[in-house]
Write a structure and sequence with these properties.
Elements lengths: L4 H76 L2 E11 L2 E8 L2 E2 L5 H9 L4 E7 L2 E7 L13 E2 L3 H7 L4 E7 L2 E11 L5 E10 L4 H8 L7 E5 L5 E3 L12 H9 L2 E7 L2 E10 L4 E8 H52 L13 H61 L3 E2 L5 E4 L5 H17 L5 H16 L6 E4 L3 H43 L12
Antiparallel strand pairs: 1-2, 2-3, 4-5, 4-9, 5-6, 7-8, 8-9, 10-11, 10-14, 12-13, 13-14, 15-16, 16-17
């Protein structure tokens, strides 16, 4: 069964409203998904660049702050007075026995007054070295080990730092203090004769940088993080693996080799993407790591939201389509109901809808058609009734005419058998025939009715009427006619001719009866057709 026009309209409305939404939503999802992935990767890269800039800024601050602090400490040392060595007070430092070092009245060797003031006031780790046998011996420090004890009695005898300060130069940069990385400045100390007698170092533990805590707090998407490692693959910052060496991983080796770039890799079954940069002053590899599942979580969330929105939009579209189709088909349903009433015979039904111009035209057209149809049906019913009545009257009159004609035929047959008597007087012939008055009346009735039911221009009919008139003239009221003796044969011939014409008239009336029967059948069929509202087995009615 074909769907109704209303259902097709409903489907088309849904298709027109839903399919563009699907296409637009899918296309938008693809674009947004790509854009989100791109923006997320850009965010990871920007995070990496931001950390790099933060570290570089920290280094710039240190590059200005440490020299300034070192100059202040030099001024403080100079304010104490001249350096001197008391050989009467020898002390053991490492493998050496050396004299006690004083600057003014301030004892330096194994005294921590100056360095502790720095750690308290400036939060600066500080160490003072004394030059002995071309080695810098650590004689005073506020740098402590993990157990809280001071790091003393060690020396600097080689390396880039040693090369700098042994030549009276300043070293500014990273340095390991007993395995603890610091940002440092090493300043040589001279006596009044500009002889190199020692050095001091001011520094800042890298683990105490504010930036370290800031980096640890950085998250990328939901589970991404930042990892810092050095060129030996020792992890400096990591949410879980700080202090480990990860040189054994292939992706770590790629990072160390490339120094700058990005890489996708799988770790513990998790797909990840990493952007990395190398900060040479600190020997740091800044690695910003994003979890691909996190990166795709936003598109998935958006897809769920899009699907939810799509389902809601479909439901809304269905409701809108339903109400629109319902509203649209209100006048159509009303028209259908009016047509059903008309089909059932109610021609007085009218269809009224003036909300829309189109339905207003349809309403006026339907009403005009209904009005015209009711008039035509009324006329057809009236004509049908008249035709039926006329058909009945014609058949009745023809039946009567046939009866009359049969009587006439019988009378003439009887007349033709009567003998003719001749009289000797005046040579006249007397017909001793006893005609009945019924025959004369029948002739007159036949004469009157023939022109009503037979075309008056029919010559045979006119001839029969003339013969009937002649026959009446020849029959007098005394039932006795007089004819010339010499015309007896002519009278017989006339009777014969009338008889023949009556036979013709019978045939003609038979034909008229047959035609009238057909006319009656037509009238009956018209009557059936007039009652079209009462037909059964209508193929157009479900």
């Amino acid at each position: 069964m074909n769907p109704s026009f209303r259902m097709r309209l409903f489907k088309w409305f849904v298709i027109v409203s839903v399919i563009p939404s699907i296409l637009l939503g899918g296309f938008s999802y693809l674009l947004i998904n790509q854009e989100i992935a791109k923006n997320t990767e850009n965010m990871i890269n920007n995070t990496n660049d931001g950390i790099y800039n933060m570290i570089d800024t920290q280094q710039r601050v240190l590059d200005q702050w440490l020299p300034s602090a070192a100059e202040a400490f030099v001024s403080q040392l100079n304010a104490l007075g001249e350096s001197r060595f008391d050989y009467n007070e020898m002390v053991k430092v490492g493998d050496y026995v050396i004299p006690t070092w004083y600057i003014g009245d301030q004892k330096i060797t194994h005294d921590y007054t100056l360095v502790d003031e720095l750690i308290e006031k400036e939060k600066l780790p500080a160490t003072i070295f004394m030059l002995e046998d071309n080695k810098f011996l650590r004689v005073s420090t506020n740098v402590r080990q993990e157990d809280g004890s001071r790091i003393i009695d060690t020396d600097i005898s080689s390396g880039p730092i040693y090369d700098k300060i042994i030549n009276g130069q300043v070293y500014l940069g990273r340095a390991s203090v007993e395995g603890i990385m610091h940002a440092t400045i090493y300043m040589p100390i001279f006596d009044s004769d500009r002889k190199l007698i020692g050095a001091f170092v001011l520094g800042r533990r890298e683990s105490e940088y504010e930036i370290i805590n800031a980096i640890k707090r950085i998250t990328i998407a939901n589970n991404g993080y930042v990892m810092i490692m050095d060129s030996d693959a020792n992890i400096i910052i990591h949410p879980e693996r700080t202090g480990e060496n990860v040189m054994g991983y292939e992706w770590i080796q790629s990072i160390l080799k490339q120094q700058n770039g990005s890489i996708r890799y799988s770790f513990d079954g998790t797909e990840k993407i990493a952007y990395f940069r190398y900060y040479e002053p600190w020997d740091w590899y800044i690695v910003s790591i994003g979890i691909l599942d996190d990166i795709q979580s936003a598109p998935r969330t958006m897809l769920k939201l899009l699907l939810t929105t799509f389902i809601i939009s479909i439901l809304i579209s269905l409701l809108i389509a339903y109400f629109i189709s319902k509203e649209f088909f209100k006048p159509i349903n009303k028209l259908v109901n009016s047509l059903k009433l008309m089909k059932n015979g109610d021609l007085s039904v009218r269809f009224t809808s003036y909300k829309d111009e189109e339905f207003k035209f349809l309403s006026n057209t339907f009403n005009a058609l209904s009005y015209t149809f009711s008039i035509l049906m009324g006329r057809l019913i009236s004509s049908s009734n008249k035709l039926k009545e006329s058909s009945k009257r014609v058949l009745l009159d023809l039946d009567r005419s046939m009866a009359t004609l049969s009587n006439l035929e019988k009378d003439i047959e009887d007349l033709m058998t009567y003998p003719i008597k001749l009289s000797s007087e005046s040579n006249l012939i007397y017909l001793n025939v006893d005609y009945s008055n019924d025959m004369i009346e029948s002739l007159e009735l036949l004469r009157q009715k023939l022109p009503k039911y037979i075309n008056a221009s029919n010559e045979e009919v006119m001839e029969i009427i003339t013969l009937i008139d002649d026959l009446k003239k020849q029959i007098d009221v005394k039932n006795e006619a007089t004819v010339n003796h010499g015309d007896d044969m002519e009278i017989n011939n006339r009777f014969n001719a009338i008889y023949i014409e009556i036979q013709k008239l019978k045939l003609l009336i038979d034909n008229i009866v047959n035609s009238s029967s057909s006319l009656d059948e037509i009238a009956t069929e018209v009557d059936k057709q007039v009652n079209i509202f009462k037909t059964e087995n209508d193929p157009y009615i479900e």
